[in-house]
Amino acid sequence: MKLVALSLVFFCLLAQNLAQVQQQECMNELQPCLNYINGNSNPPDSCCRPLSNVIRSMPECLCSFMSIQGANQAEQAGINTTEAQTLPGRCGQHINPLGCITGTPDTRSRNSVPNNSAGSKFQLSSLIVAASIILSF
């Protein structure tokens, strides 16, 4: 039974590491935009194309920057988060920041199926932790 609990803890840690890897991929994708975050000039396609890709394929990445912790980390790195939030608009992309709360941070309509991958990861890891605690008794 302890082997099962250890396995569950292992998978929980693996899920956490996967989230960190995805966050790093997102940062790498947005790297061409760093020179355009703290300003109001129109960014070039070399920034807007990767940003569009992140909005489409990794919207939870953008949501993480809008969290209090993410905003604090960004500001510590010298990024003005208020100006950074205008970057999608300057690239002609429209996102709904409230979608980060409802689970649909991308550009899809409100009638479509929500992208709740971040919530699913949270639910899965919570389930794994709960199961490992129960099995440890």
UniProtKB/TrEMBL annotation:
One of its GO terms (cellular component) is plasma membrane. It holds the Pfam family LTP_2. Its main location: membrane. One of its GO terms (molecular function) is lipid binding. Residues 20-100 form the Bifunctional inhibitor/plant lipid transfer protein/seed storage helical domain. Gene3D superfamilies: Plant lipid-transfer and hydrophobic proteins. The keyword Zinc does not apply. Keywords: Cell membrane, Disulfide bond, Glycoprotein, GPI-anchor, Lipid-binding, Lipoprotein, Membrane, Signal, Transport. The keyword Signal applies. It comes from the Eukaryota. Transmembrane segments: none annotated. It is found in: Cell membrane. SUPFAM superfamilies: Bifunctional inhibitor/lipid-transfer protein/seed storage 2S albumin (SSF47699). Residues 1-19 form the signal peptide. CDD domains: AAI_LTSS. It is a lipid-anchor; GPI-anchor. Belongs to the plant LTP family. This is Bifunctional inhibitor/plant lipid transfer protein/seed storage helical domain-containing protein. The lineage of its organism: Eukaryota, Viridiplantae, Streptophyta, Embryophyta, Tracheophyta.
